[in-house]
Amino acid sequence: MKLSRQEVLHIALLTHLGLSEDEVDRLSEQLSNILENFEILQQLDTSNIPPTAQAIALQNVVRDDEVAPSLPQQQVLSNAPRRDGEYFRVKAVLE
Amino acid sequence: MIVNHPTIGEAHRLLLKRELSSTELTRAILERINQVEPKVHALVTITDELALKQAREADRLLASGETSPLTGIPVAVKDNICTRGTRTTCSSRMLENFVPPYDATVAEKLNAAGAVIIGKANMDEFAMGSSTEHSAFFPTRNPWDLSRVPGGSSGGPATAVASGEAIYALGSDTGGSIRQPAGFCSVVGLKPTYGRVSRYGLVAFASSLDQIGPLTQDVTDCAMVLNAIAGYDSRDSTSVPYPVPDYTQSLKTDLSGLRVGVPGDYFVKGMQSEVETAIQTAINKLEELGAEVDREVSLPHTPYALAAYYIIAPSEASANLARYDGVKYGFSSQDAGSMFEAMEKTRQFGFGDEVKRRIMLGTYALSAGYYDAYYLKAQKVRTLIRQEFDRAFEKFDALITPTSPTVPFKIGEKIDDPLQMYLSDVCTLPVNIAGLPAISIPAGFAEGLPIGMQIISKPFAEETILKIAYAYEQATEWHKRRPQI
Question: Do A53 and B361 count as a contact with CB atoms less than 8 A apart?
């Protein structure tokens, strides 16, 4: 599976990684090489095999909705890069 | 110190007899860190003040008789396990200054047991890697040969234990990240069953695969640490409400009646011959100890596990790491620009090469048009691998394989070739795909470099694994060797 530069740029856009031109070139080659090796999976017939999302048998884990203490607001905000009083401060989404 | 480099068991006995105080033991460990840390670089943060405070508290507990086997014993914690008030970096620039406002459940459990946390241990960034060279801060060096890697991603924890900077450590294992470095550093490393230990407060990498476990100097210590950290936790919805046995009760030296299988598919092309010889010799030893060994086991889907893993794990990672947007915590680019430009600059600077590679790979595998061919296909192959293990465990109590196909490799040897690096996990990652428990224990050396043996069993059969590991350890001397640094 050879990834085109166009495809890599599209994925890069989805990931918001801000890749440089050099990184796009390098990743085009490395990801193509990795995906080529993953072609091995196509050898297996999985048409009647259900997918596994996780390996243990737990399903639909629920609990009662009970009021319990949570972290104080000041602690929740303690790692915020930018804050404004009781809020996280973000850049404008709509110009 | 009265004993050099004591195990948890030895230190615990000395503490109970009052022949050693936790404060003395902690000071000796900090002294050792001063000596060897400039050579091995295993620790991102040394928490000396916290450790001495916890040691004084432990000495009070010991005086009052309220003790557990971990009371007063110095431990290193992998730097992706949240410790309240102590920065938790994941060895990433993204979290370089992140100070968690809460403890992971395992950290709470250590604190409740009176443990002494001496530091946060280095790792591949966000646990993505097999050599600890992907740490954004510095590579950790193998204590057996400083020009070689300690394995990864828990290279810091494994090195800290092997070089005497900690009596034991906690790591995390998503595709081999406890077992492979344990093998490379000649210590004991256990990945418990998925659901056995709470991951609450473990920084998420691949949520359907991640598990926390101990790295220790011997199997007895492993059982003691597992006793302390296992169990149900309502804050981790994947943790399983099964009772926790006393794992030290499973440490027996007679393996009569145990059925052990050796899957030939794990002795892969390109495996180092000394590794194969050492593991075959170890299997003969298990037979001497009473185990019934079948050397003709076939697990034909094994060659597909690597590809399935490196689709599933990066896919989950790409979703988990979407949270690093520079808003709530972590690095944030303050350069002028739009919200999206700021986010891109944050992630561009905050993440290293391997993390970016995996986010790209995972995003691709999940993206429209490729989801069925990659992600869904990998999940179906995951089913086939699980079913194959299920069938094997109808006939066998445990499977024996090498932990890694080679001894520790040179620093820099695989850093530019991601696929070669991924192959280092070829024997360990099928275990995570199936959610199984597995251990790596010391099983020999090739020209002074450690070789690890992996013992795999069915879900929640940690006792079987510990029994086999203990019997082998008691019949051999490998675990007594220490690196000269």
Answer: no
